[in-house]
């Protein structure tokens, strides 16, 4: 896992005065799964489009396998592939016909057998004769994923890969992706709004905001940057006293039917529990919810709004 | 060094052939409109020649030849422009060019489709003209070939010109895919001699290769010999226009890529 298969340096994209991606640099190692996260308008899709060579950067370089994407385009695109939960294929062609076309474009040997095998794996055999326009959003996503795996890519760029999928199919696809990574040491760059998915799949997360890299870390590392936890209690006695204490310490809280959730810095939990015990607050249930990647995501959004 | 792949060219061709057999619009464009043109023009001139004895019989041959050969130009440009529109409508440009497909391969595929469907349309319309009016354009034999080639090249460069406009302005101007070629028609002396045009139109017509091709074809029908000077003039003009429109097309493609193919609508 030491070889960098993707290196991005000083990547910038301007549309007139607007800077969509602002001088970002990062690398992805062989076999690594990296999440590209950020709020809407952070520059994720623009970055992915530049990585696929369907948009030219204003400045900066992109290299795969040690070769420039701009000078070795065909060689590199033959070894990578992509899928987007929102991308579409020609709607008047059947799923099979569309995949057949991409079998030729990627010059996949014996591609018709490969399509059948992948369709079986993604539970999509029945979808192949159907016109693309007649597929549901989730079914289209599965066909796009078959396209993405047709050429056994060494690097896979996935933009919201499980958007519109039912949870069981999303899980099946995540399992397949993780299995392929294990089997072929495939490298994956993925964007997703599903934080649990990112935490499950990704080794590292690149967090973009306003076109810049805001943070690069493991999902757990990013989650830890959000210092607040949630303390959930079911109160038997002393609810009013507890609320007074939370107000005094300026901890935000939500109370409903004797259940109370208090947002509190992680290091203050122990002392707060001791304090409420001294005041005679009696609780029958307690749960401490550690900060997650979603909390980090939300904290960035809140910071943006402020 | 970029490697040209005929497999990828075939991938693009088969994509449009799959679409052709499933789309009534494309089938009617290939058969219905040409049939209607042959029938209406043929009937009109048959009726006129019956009432006006002074009209020579060769007129109907020239008119139907004009109709059939104009479809060569139209077919060449149509395969480039409408097939680009198909990709824009289905938001498939990002998928296509995130694969190893090159612009050269894509262009060659569309030009080849024009060439393949040219046979389909010309054979169909010529057979219809022979069946309905006993006008056999194939009696001109090999003399037709240089004219057909020149006309196809006109269709190609005009198609590349319109495709360049689509890459800049998208589907807002999509009507040019069907109607654009007809801009040249009045100036091209398709159905009438160049000399019959007003002077201002003649000044424009002399810069169009189609003018020399249709004038040349009428000379072939009348005399049975090929006017070489007409073929040379039309070919030279074609080389100039093809070079210019190829440059424009490549430049428009590059500009579209700067904006991002995802923004093409």
Based on the coordinates given, report the CATH architecture of the largest domain in chain A: 3-Layer(aba) Sandwich
Poorly predicted regions of chain A are none
- Give the helices and strands of chain B as they follow along the chain: HHHHHHHHHH
Q: How many angstroms does the end-to-end distance of chain B come to?
A: 32 Å
Q: Average pLDDT across residues of chain B?
A: 89
Name of the CATH superfamily of the largest domain in chain A: P-loop containing nucleotide triphosphate hydrolases
Q: Which class do the helix and strand fractions of chain A yield?
A: alpha/beta
Q: How would you characterize the largest beta sheet of chain B? A: none
Helicity of chain B, as a percent range: over 70%
The quaternary structure here is heterodimer
The DSSP helix count of chain B reads 10
**Can you give the mean pLDDT of chain A?**
90
Please, could you describe this protein's structure?
Chain A is built from 11 helices and 14 strands. Chain A has helices at residues 44-51, 73-79, 95-105, 111-121, 137-149, 167-184, 195-201, 219-225, 239-249, 269-278, 293-305; strands at residues 4-15, 18-29, 33-37, 59-64, 67-68, 80-84, 155-159, 187-191, 204-209, 212-217, 228-237, 253-256, 259-265, 282-289. With 306 residues, chain A is an alpha/beta fold. Chain A folds into 2 domains: 4-223, Rossmann fold (3-Layer(aba) Sandwich), CATH 3.40.50; 227-290, Alpha-Beta Plaits, CATH 3.30.70. The two termini of chain A are 40 Å apart. Chain A is elongated and about 75 Å long. Chain B has 10 helices and no strands. With 265 residues, chain B is mainly α. The interface between A and B is medium-sized, with 33 and 36 residues.
